[in-house]
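Protocol step 6 of 9: fold each sequence in the batch and record its structure tokens directly after the sequence line. For illustration, a two-sequence batch is reproduced in full.

Sequence one:
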Amino acid sequence: MKIHIFSLFLFVSAYCNGQESPNFLWLVCEDQSLFFSMYGDSSANTPNINQLAKDGLVYQNCYTPSPVCAPSRSSLITGMYPTTLGTQHMRAYKKSAQSNTINSHNSLPYYSAKPKKPIRFFTEDLRANGYYCTNNSKEDYNMITSPLAWDDSSKEAHWRNREDDQPFFSVFNFNITHESRIWKNNTKYSEDELKEVSIPKFFPDHDGIKSDIVTNYKNIEKLDKQIGLIINQLKADNLYENTIIFFFSDHGGPFPRYKRSIYETGIKVPFIAKWIDYNNTGNTNQLVSFVDFAPTILDAAKIDREFSFEGISFFNKDKRNYVFAATDRFDASTDKRRSIRGKKFKLIYNGDTTSSVYQPVIYRQKMKTMQVLDSLYKTHELNTYFSNWFSKNKERFELYEVSEDYYETKNLINNPKYERIRKILHHHLFKWMEESDFGNMNESAMLDSMFTNYIIPKLNMPELTITDLGYLIKPNNLHVSVGWRYKKEKKWNIYKKGDLILPKDDLEVLLFKPGYEVLIKDFEK
């Protein structure tokens, strides 16, 4: 066995003479579509985001595999599809829930999914290679967070708390543009303000809807100021040049037919990447999925690991031909839909044709726009588009030329001119669906396949080998994350096979594997 003396500072030798590894900063907003100047919408004044776009590369076709936050965030942190993880059902996991606590949305216990494939939060790989990883501060992965994922995940988490010259990966989450801020921040606007706002063509021309849209633009302006503060801190620390920055939204916009929707408005998100190479600027039409973010970061950091992601790196590469997405349960409503998007066209598969595209979500009823749509529907005054949205039936397949028809208003599925395109997309979509571990199961069957009587399985106990030079940990479990710390410490260190821990105080060893009980074992000196 190859043995390495373990450095308590977790530094890699590559930057002992000054940092050489790139830093990473993620600026993550919530519930936003392409409501930004770099996409041709200048309704909100966003000088900080605009400058980032000038310094970076604007991606015209970035997609989340799920149009709601928790499943999409599970994909970001693992580089895997929610339908592979088993995290595709919104609000399946509740951190505070006791074992077998029943979820009122689906009458099943709350659960943290147990994937079949090897899974690891990619920040563990960064930490194992000397990176300081922070999250400020939303996690919400629809599964238990790995205790080894972050050096600090809190409202105080910041790269400034790292050791000198230590490379970092820092995430800042901004709640100001969340769906709930539409009704919480709503105010009375003047007639001129409402008259000036441009609304998507499928919405009814109604002041209540216009008011919500104005509020969203006002929230985006507040977001821009918050982002400006973080970027200015980075520049003040002389770190801007050596930091790769991602700005993106966790999924599409806050309105009905945006969030929770498999249409472009729900899964296509704003995304800027400011690379260290300043020649890599402008705009790109390449397809990018959230499953690609984790492998891209590790690729840019020159870090390999022993098992693969489902995503593919887009660091100086363009290898993706299709992006996939899925919808399943949103709170109490279930609507199984799957989609594939190629360079120009998109195919949607509707698993249930006897229900409407509209799905009732109690939380969303607080929004004026939803109240207006409901009211117009009851009085039969809705426009054609939203009348179809509420229709009790939908076609099995929908085909759109999304490169020209962003709002997906013209379904081409019955047009023989596009038969060949439909067949190609159908083939690749169903291949992806068939390869899915959990995407073709209902939620109850999925849980039966994961757990026995909903009992969370336990991991085998680790072993500690004592040598003349120190301690070696034998985890005794496959594909398990291993952490350690001295008993007086708060933060877990990442343990890699072959690391030698210097004897000092009593030792604690932690084992983590998604879907299993977290195991902490004490070893006395």
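Sequence two, same batch, same settings:
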Amino acid sequence: MKHAVYCATRNLYDAMETAAKSLVANTPVDKVHFLMEDAEFPRPLPDIIECHDVSGQDIFDPEGPNANCRWTWMVLMRAALCHVLPDVDRVLSIDCDTVCAGDASGAWELPLDGCYLAGVKEGGKSKHGLQYVNMGVALFDLEKLRDGKADEIIGVLNTHRFTWPEQDAINYLCQGRICEMPNRYNSMAFNGEADDAVITHFAAVPMSKWWNRPEVLEYREMGWDEVMERHGYAGRGKVLFASNHGLARDESLRAVWDAYDGPKEFAKPVESIATKRGYPVVVVDTLTPYVPNKDFALVNIGHGISGGKLYGFDEQRAGIDPKALAQTDYAISSSTGTVGLVAGQFGISEDKVLPLGFPRADWYAGKKKGDGGSFLAKYERAYLYAPTFRGKNDGDRLPAIDWEMLDSMLEDDEVIAVKRHYFQRQPIVTGDVDRIVEIPTAEGIAPYLIDCDVLLTDYSSTLFDAYMLGKPCVLAIDDMDAYLDKRGMYFEYPSRYCTRWLEAEGNEAKLLEHMRAAHVTGMRHAERELMVKVADMCDGHAAERVCELIRSLL
């Protein structure tokens, strides 16, 4: 069993609890012991924590030479762990000014080979033939210390004063029986930080400088319920999430990120996964490069059914390495009806395509107008224009709609919100308008999609999100030939996607007529039939299912 121990007087209880949270959240430790000066901790603790009241201990003389040192008498208790924990044979002792950021299991697995303890060597003190280790993190063989060595150390501490009390005494009396611990388990700034640090020790750093650091604050604010949830997956490895964009831009990836409660990290760009190792599972929402000697399970949750095809994806796979596609272990499809299509995209067998649904659609499930909290909700007829991004390879232009003319035709209970793609740098709306509002690119589309009545788009996969919300759509197809020539669509466009489409340039009156009609009639049979085919698994639980897949691969 993996036992850990922290020692603290009352003024250090908060630090001790924070340090223990970080350890428990990331490491499959079996029991954590708090040596403290109260019978009960001032806050509820999970069963994994066992408190030991040592305030009445009679091991060390309260008037002894080291009882009132600057580190308080509690540090002396580390020299008496074999007596305080009589049923424990091996324990990892950890200072309170530490934070554990990864699985520390390896510290318990160090071979002691007949030594009393293992610790990280302090270079400045290990000289003149002396092997001196820091006690901030130390692995003790309590069974061996019971051979009389612990009592010898206790006796010396009760009769001789030391600069670094129990640390000095243990080091001096255990010479020749100390194993060296890798400094990744006790990474200290004053003694050389480890590049692969698991436990960081803020030794010699004032508490005012480390107490509010992000890696410490995370566990200060984390409740024990969340700590224990993460503990359930500790030791099974972190999951790497990767994208070419930030999490704020990747709706599907962020939905799974938010739902997954195990240890995880985010990497940008996705190409970086080729240099990262040690992650059992990598989750991406975009295409990945070929990774030689791939040693992880690759789950792709992007590029299922979307508006337009990837460049030559199905036909020529232009610019795409087939080996990179084939290394996908699992690809997520939005429905049972698109498994074969996704398998063809990646060049993988259908049993590797799992119809788990659109994770990003989880946010929309069950939502109705007003739930988005946007200004669109107060209008009787709210229209949202959200075109896809056009690069030089697929049209490279947006419909030149006369926004002033369209604005002049809107009635008091009507409004149009324009949400350009976040790659689109230039504003779309031109002219002097009152009822047409362009939304900043920094804002997400979800609140406006939820609160609109009709979506106006072109080739964007936002169309599917609108249909999931029961919103009818109108398509602007001004540059359809140029776009389809370079990009293509999965089904016959536009008839299989929508029943209302037009060339919007110069047809502003007809465009508004289409949007008003869509508001009255809603989604038609063709749109509902499309959703049955491409989104029958979009029930609000897609991210949960992807998380279950991730856990099964750990």
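Proceed to step 7 once all outputs are recorded. Observation for sequence two: DSSP finds 19 helices and 22 strands in the chain.
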